[in-house]
Amino acid sequence: MLSRGDLAWLAVAAYALHVMEEQISDWPAAARRSMHLSIEYANYRVITSVYLILGAVAAFLFGSLPVLALGFAAFLLINAVYFHIWPMIRAGGLVGGIITAVFLFLPIGIAQYYAPGIPQRDYWISIVIGVVLVVFPLALLHYRRAFAGGASHGGEAPHKRRARR
Questions:
Q1: Which end of the chain is more exposed for a tag (fewer CB within 10 A), N or C?
Q2: Residue 33: predicted pLDDT
Q3: Is pLDDT of 143 > 80?
């Protein structure tokens, strides 16, 4: 049987494979169509790179902060359901990333929650961590569109609003 630490590293590997699947299947374009989620390719690459690093940090710190690895597992489960399974059900067709979401994220995430030795409070803390990981980049994307005038990434200044006379 795999240890919780082993499962944490498998979660990182699963996420790496997931990023590859999404990139090849052009998930950002599909997200724009099916979920009305406007995400540019440059932002998508940054977000997925940061998630990969955060997953590795969580796995590396498993010995001292196991709740972080459980939080990354929560992120994987939320990602699988909200960004892949639910859109596939709504759209009635395949969604990029669905293979790794179903066959890697769900089993690895669920196995981490069923592993022995998890304090009750860690379940709740991990769910909060997972939700924050999902919501933070979405909030940043919304913030940029709503308050910064929607300027694209790359150093362009936001459009200034003209005062009404």
A1: C
A2: 74
A3: yes
The ranges assigned to domains in the chain are 4-147
Question: Which two structure tokens, joined as six digits, stand for 109?
Answer: 């995430």
What pLDDT is recorded for position 156?
A: 45
Contacts of 44 (CB under 8 A, 6+ apart): 27, 28
Contact yes or no for 74/122 (Cβ under 8 A): no
Amino acid in the structure at residue 80: A
Neighbour tally for 156: CB within 10 Å = 10
Query: How much is the pTM?
Result: 0.85
Rounded distance, CA 106 to CA 122, Å? Answer: 19
SS (H, E, C) the chain: CCCHHHHHHHHHHHHHHHHHHHHHCCHHHHHHHHCCCCCCHHHHHHHHHHHHHHHHHHHHCCCCCHHHHHHHHHHHHHHHHHHHHHHHHHHCCCCCCHHHHHHHHHHHHHHHHHCCCCCHHHHHHHHHHHHHHHHHHHHHHHHHHHHCCCCCCCCCCCCCCCCCC
To which residue do tokens 């009404």 refer? 164
Average pLDDT of the residues of the chain: 88
